[in-house]
Amino acid sequence: MTFEIWVVFLILALAVVAFVTERVRHDLIGLLVMVLLGLTNVLQPDDLLHGFGNRAVVTIGAMFVLSAALTRTGMVSALSGKLADYSRGNPMRFLVFSLVTVCVMSAFINNTPVVLVFIPAVLTVSAKVGMSPSKFLMPISFASMLGGSCTLIGTSSNILVSSISDGLGQGAIGMFEFSQVGIVIVFAGMGYLLFLSFRLLPDRVTIASSANPEAAKKYVTQVQLARESNLIGKTLGETPFGKSRVSVVELIRGEQISRLGRDTPLELGDILLVRGDLNEILELDRQHSVTITPGLKPEVGDFKRVEMTLFELMIAPDSNLIGQRCSAIGFRQEYEVSIFAIQRRGRHHQREIGEIELKLGDILLVRGSIEEASRLRDSNEFILLEGVHEEREERHKAPIAIATIATIILLASLGVFPISVLSLGGVAVVLLAKLLTPREVYRAVDWPVLVLIAGMIALGDAMGQTGALDLIASQLVSAVGSLGPHATLWIFYIMTGGLSLLILNKPAAALMAPLAVILAQQLNVDPKPFVMAVAFAASTAMATPMGYQTNLLVYGPGGYAFKDFIRFGLPLNLLVGVIACFLIPWVWPF
Questions:
Q1: 515-545 as b/e, with b when 16 or more CB fall inside 10 Å?
Q2: Shared-domain flag, residues 200 and 216
Q3: 312 in any annotated domain
Q4: DSSP-derived secondary structure letter, 1
Q5: Contact between 185 and 237 (Cβ < 8 Å)
Q6: Is residue 94 part of a domain?
Q7: Which of 23, 407, 410, 524 has its CA 20 to 30 A from that of 385?
Q8: Judgement on whether residues 284 and 416 belong to the same structural domain of the protein
């Protein structure tokens, strides 16, 4: 191997480690990859920056804007808000309506805003039907992936694979070309979700979603058992909490949040999240050696005549707070709320909150006035996990947004104009119709995603130019090529799917699509089946939270653990993979 190949493999290894450990922001990984490739002279500047001018990057950026414009019309929130009425209190009916709606919408607009709008709606409806939101949120995320796999614009990875295929001389993929296999996958996947969601998914409850509506009129705070407390070793029924009008909402023990059972003995250092009349809480503080957490004591007097509530805020995908430490944001000064805890991927962080850097999908457990909760409902930084996330809506302009997206789909399907040109035209219509302001258009674009994609395209180009891809393909052909193209396709699909589960689907698609073409050429077969295998494997990465962005979005609100995605998502991943590997060679022969 040449020096350049060693360098490329080293950069690839470092990138994979960075993705898996999540110590570095994803867009920063893409940026660092480009910097390393430039400093080592593996790529020249023009080739290094080629990813920013890639048609896929332009198209994906434009589709972010078009999805935001359609969301602004209020159609998505209106549909999600009506589901409770349509379901008539029946959980299964609600699940069916939700999955079908999300699946269909995700085939034509970016699935991230669809899932974002549905999260607070699901929390509200699940409380009404008396079921945990964990029974609904993961299926909704998976349904968005299934729907997105059916069309070119349904997911960013499909657009990326199509662009790479076209750039390598294999032709672009048609708007509905994915549907020939995607529809079969949708029916099989939806059957799995409908029949097994309630059986296999855990019954998890997050703190704020478990509080009843009357909690808004009561004081909510944390009390901690002091070393000299006479409550240590007693169960809930033996403590004053069982007799007073102060109720225990949750028990915080170490890094875990759980309900406090009546027979669970209390331990030194336990933190109890309690709700009730302020004076009764203070009386317990005086008489029973429970201590209101120190950070809250100076503020107690300020809230005696203010109706306080406890609510959860999820960090939005485009939030400016991502990457900032809590102590540097100034929540009390800026938003007039106090943070109790941060929940990240099923784990509770209550100590040294100020030093934690916020990430996408983090859940902030905060206390504030009811008026402040209403104000934060309109913030672009958070998603209020209570009711539908409302914002300014332009419902009278819904026909314009729908007609724009429909025209793009029609003309792209007929091959009249390239999808990149059509999508930019759609952005121009959005601006001319004033569906979004210029500032909102730029804000709608997920720039970190585009930087990440550009960096991975540069890495893929470097692997192609240095001969690294040829080396990997030749080794793969030597190992499994004798088994024939069908068996090789199955193995290649598994490789792509595994990589997608580790490093997100878009980087995996950017790296594996060029390899698909070279591998097929060395096998002397048509590259199309291998290219399509990359598309389907990358767009259905369900078995880990980091496989797809919508999984990260539902991770916190659903109260899921990592193993929940493996337990529920891996069988569906395998089902989709088997269907895809059987049908792809039949639809696109070798």
A1: bbbbbbbebebbbbbbbbbbbbbbbbbbbbb
A2: no
A3: yes
A4: -
A5: no
A6: yes
A7: 23
A8: no
DSSP 241: G
Helices (H), 88-132: 91-106, 111-129
**Residue 450 is encoded by which pair of tokens?**
């585009």
Q: Is the confidence at residue 410, as pLDDT, over 80?
A: yes
The two tokens of residue 157 are 């990875």
Asked if residue 263 and residue 237 are part of one domain, the reply reads yes
Residue 336 φ/ψ region, left for φ over 0, alpha for ψ in the -120 to 50 degree band, beta for the rest: left
- Same domain flag for 163 and 230: no
Q: Which of 58, 57, 163 is nearest to 453 (CA)?
A: 57
Of 359, 384, 409, at which residue does a domain stop? Answer: 384
DSSP classification of residue 53:
G
User: What amino acid is encoded at 354 in this protein?
Assistant: G
- Furthest CA-CA distance within the chain: 82
Q: In the numeric block, which tokens belong to residue 517? A: 């073409």
Q: Is 63 exposed, middle or buried (0-12, 13-18, 19+ CB in 10 A)?
A: buried
Please tell me what DSSP assigns to residue 133. G
The β-bridge partners of 383 are: 314
Q: Is residue 530 within a helix (H) or strand (E), and if so which, with residue range?
A: helix 528-539
Q: Which of 80-89, 508-517, 560-569 has the lowest mean pLDDT?
A: 80-89
Six-digit token string for 353:
């909150």
Say whether both 60 and 197 belong to one domain: yes
Q: At 251, which helix (H) or strand (E)? A: strand 247-253
Interval 521-534 mean pLDDT: 95
Which of these, 164, 58, 49, 152, lies nearest to 110 by C-alpha position?
152
**Count of the separate structural domains present in the chain:** 2
Residue 389 within any structural domain of the chain: no
On whether both 36 and 184 belong to a single domain, the answer is: yes
**CA angle 430–436–439, rounded 5-degree value:** 120
Alpha carbon of 185 to those of 413, 434, 535, 576, 583: distances in Å? 21, 38, 13, 6, 10
Confidence class of residue 426 from pLDDT cuts 50, 70 and 90?
A: very high
Residues 349 and 412 placed together within one structural domain of the fold: no
Separation CA 184–CA 177 (nearest Å):
13
Question: Structure tokens of 384?
Answer: 């209020």
Q: Using the 3D structure, point to which of 329, 358, 384 is the last residue of a domain.
A: 384
Provide the percentage of residues in the chain whose pLDDT is more than 70: 83
Q: Which domain holds residue 185?
A: 7-204+400-587
Task: Tell me how far apart the alpha carbons of residues 149 and 580 are, in angstroms, rounded to a whole number.
Answer: 11
Q: Taking residues 550-556, report their average pLDDT.
A: 85
User: For 489-525, how does the pLDDT look when each residue is reduced to its tens digit (9 = 90+)?
Assistant: 999 999 999 999 988 889 999 999 999 999 999 999 9
| More reliable by pLDDT, 383 or 467 | 467
CATH number at residue 352: 3.30.70.1450
